[in-house]
Amino acid sequence: MEEIGTSTTAEKKAMLRPSLKSDSEFNNYQLWKQKLRENCFKRVRQDRSRLLWKCRLSSSDDESSRLLHNQDELDIVFRDIVSDELNKINNDDNDLLWNDDLKAAHEGDCQDILLEMQNLFYQDLDSHIDTWEDEVDHYLARAVYDHMHLNPDNNTNNKTFGEQIWCPLCKQGQLKDTHNLIYCTRCKLQLTKADELTLDFLRDRLAEVHMEHLDRGCRLKPRFCIKTKFNLTALYIVCEGCDTFEVVI
């Protein structure tokens, strides 16, 4: 009888004692959930300008209509972000264990995070669009200034000056031309002139490739380089951020 009583008491104590494993799983999951939320929100803030570019490049002229038109695409982007960040956390945390309760909580929390991501994206969107468009205008103005500059000295008696084009390679020298060559006054840039190649044409091409690069949604500053392939020397625009590598001229 004493053995039975002792066994019953031990069983009751075991039932009353909290499960260390369950507590550990729950605490680990809470940390994991907070990390997922923070990483997803960070990605939304970082990608906001790129997503706005996608909306801006749609067919509608009205900004709100563009956003509605792209709602499905934005939802896919948000889900991809959650999935990507979830995989990163799972790869980093090999000790994360899933029971049925945690799996159900995970699915519900992911839906909550998606809704919060949408709210974060649309929060104060009108004011952000104005700021973003100002930044775009500044970016374009900076690009134009880097490569196309009107000399402030418009003295008609000084015919050696006038419209100047800064070198896209060194950003310091000016581009000049002869009857068969376009060259930089500071670096080794030299381009053989074809029939259509003039300084005006090169200036227009530099503006075009800057616009094309910006239209891709990339905000990194591209660089330019000279490469010779098959005995042909060409000027290229390069951006590692969006894998741009194209001939300028």
From TrEMBL:
Residues 166-247 form the RPA-interacting protein C-terminal domain. PANTHER family: RPA-INTERACTING PROTEIN, RPA-INTERACTING PROTEIN RPAIN. It is found in: Nucleus. One of its GO terms (molecular function) is zinc ion binding. One of its GO terms (cellular component) is nucleus. This is RPA-interacting protein. InterPro entries: RIP (IPR028156), RPA_interact_C_dom (IPR028159), RPA_interact_central (IPR028155), RPA_interact_N_dom (IPR028158). Pfam families: RPA_interact_C (PF14768), RPA_interact_M (PF14767), RPA_interact_N (PF14766). The gene is 11421538. Keywords: Metal-binding, Nucleus, Zinc, Zinc-finger. One of its GO terms (biological process) is protein import into nucleus. Residues 77-144 form the RPA-interacting protein central domain. Residues 24-57 form the RPA-interacting protein N-terminal domain.
